[in-house]
Amino acid sequence: MQTDSPDLVIAKRLLDHLKVLGFQFQRTAQGEDGALVGYRISDDYLDLIHLEGFSRDCFAWRKRSSSLIVPGSGLIERSTEGGALDVINEVLTWQAAIGIRS
Predict the structure, then answer these.
(1) Residue 23 in contact with residue 48, Cβ under 8 Å?
(2) Is residue 96 a contact partner of residue 22, using CB atoms and an 8 Å limit?
(3) What pLDDT shows up at residue 88?
(4) If you count DSSP H runs as helices and E runs as strands, how many of each does the chain have, helices first?
(5) Whole-angstrom distance, CA of residue 102 vs CA of residue 86
(6) Tens of pLDDT along 62-71?
(7) In whole angstroms, how far apart are CA 8 and each of 66, 68, 84?
(8) CA–CA separation, 31 and 34 (whole Å)
(9) Alpha-carbon distances, residue 41 vs 58, 72, 97, 98 (angstroms)
(10) How many CA atoms lie within 13 A of 77 on its CB side?
(11) pTM for the complete prediction?
(12) Strand 36-41 to strand 76-82: parallel, antiparallel, or no bridges (unpaired)?
């Protein structure tokens, strides 16, 4: 029986915490290690997390909700990229907006 590394155990616990904060996650690729995408929608923001590989190719962004048409990524308020733990820890600092919708 293979046990998870300490970093993986921490990442799983942090993902559980993100779920409590309103994020919904789904696998976007087959397999237990397939890419994982999570999102949280509120009245003011759309938060998105993409976890591809544990130590690289992960990113997240917070986009302001608006009825305005803004070219490019003008509504992106915050973003981060790097390893899974770095991205998850950064997203945990983003305040959850009141009025989270599913």
Answers:
(1) no
(2) yes
(3) 95
(4) 2, 5
(5) 25
(6) 998 876 766 6
(7) 36, 40, 9
(8) 5
(9) 20, 20, 9, 10
(10) 13
(11) 0.81
(12) unpaired
